Amino acid sequence: MLSLFLSSSSSTTSAVLSLSTKLHSSTTKRALSYIFTSTTMSINLQSHAFAGNPLRSKTPKTGDPLSPTQALETLKIRILEATHFPSSPNFKVLPFRKGRPLASSLDGTGDSSSPNWHLGWLALADFKDLLAKLGTEINGDSLVYLGSQAEDDVVYWAIDVSEEAKLVPELGSLRFSFVELRMLMVATDWADSNAMGQLAVAGHARALLEWHSTSNFCGRCGEKTIPKEAGRRKQCSSDLCKQRIYPRVDPVVIMLVIDRENDCALLSRQSRFVPRMWSCLAGFIEPGESLEEAVKRETWEETGIEVGEVVYHSSQPWPVGPSSIPCQLMVGFFAYAKSFEINVDKEELEDAKWHSREDVKKALLAAEYKKAQKTAAVKVEQMCKGVEKTQSFSGDFNVESGELAPMFFPGPFAIAHHLISTWAFQDETTDAGQAHLKQPSGSFSNL
Predict the structure, then answer these.
(1) Structural domain containing residue 91
(2) pLDDT-derived band at 22, boundaries 50, 70, 90
(3) pTM of the full structure
(4) In terms of domains, do 419 and 364 share one?
């Protein structure tokens, strides 16, 4: 019996909201604050978007009913049960379709101009019944362990249902929708610690599921792989091989190149960028290369600028890339230029230019990131209501008083934004009496 789905719209909203509140109660101290004045903008972020996952703080030890191995054994038993009885632990499932997590929009719970989205967690029994209604069965190996909340006695799982097309209208009738993670990233209210926690959970889940879909065969012998440890790793099925395979992480350096003498920063454009958008240089790390070496090599290859000193800033998981690269880890740096003349590699970049600190400040102050966030949140709400509408939020980033700004940068959900804004406003204070924004040494207090 679909107890969650058969409830009224308002009770469904309450159920999902209650679950969201419980899931993220441990993250209430995490906050992102924006302070705008006529002369400065300060951004304080305890952790980047997609970091700070509340389900990954600690993995229970083997034997604990909430641990991956023990929870999987219990899960398999629950799947085989013909009836549903309240039991411990409680299992919640987050379906994904083609890399998109299930989400719902709970309008009316706050500011109506900025609806809140929530992940579409389903009780295991409800999810099982829904699939049975469509003539489909599930098995334990198709679910991936995400983590647990000991205080709530809940274990959370993700599952890829891309092959179950009939699920889309069934869930759509109940105001659920499979929404692109990048859309949710823009729609997330960065001042809402619960929403930021949900985004981190969704990012972790997508990365794991995409990795599973691209690691079906052993890279050593070519035999099929089988999931182990509740989907946290895989193993070759060949008794002669038994190669262990772990989730893939792709490190990427992203750097703001700075010319100290002329007080300007090097920003670039790629052909895929929307008009007037500029960002930092970035590139994948090569085997046998240090992070600092990668910063220097990528800067030289793409712009012909020679870099000397390289200073670490922070890092950010980035699970919104293509499915072939399931989880990038963006490692951010400030890089100080030793040369000034630019020679752009047109195969890599459309353009690269030096921009003065004052011009960067003006662009940051003109950008309406909050407006773009609200626009995306409305789009998510429409999708969950079954209203599909083609809408672009990129223009909302760079509009002030109806006039297009000459340039704008990625929003606060991206590490590039924080590299740029930290440099632009370093050594300045706000009316709130905050400390000077010094050159970062890896501490998030400087973001």
Answers:
(1) 68-204
(2) very low
(3) 0.83
(4) yes
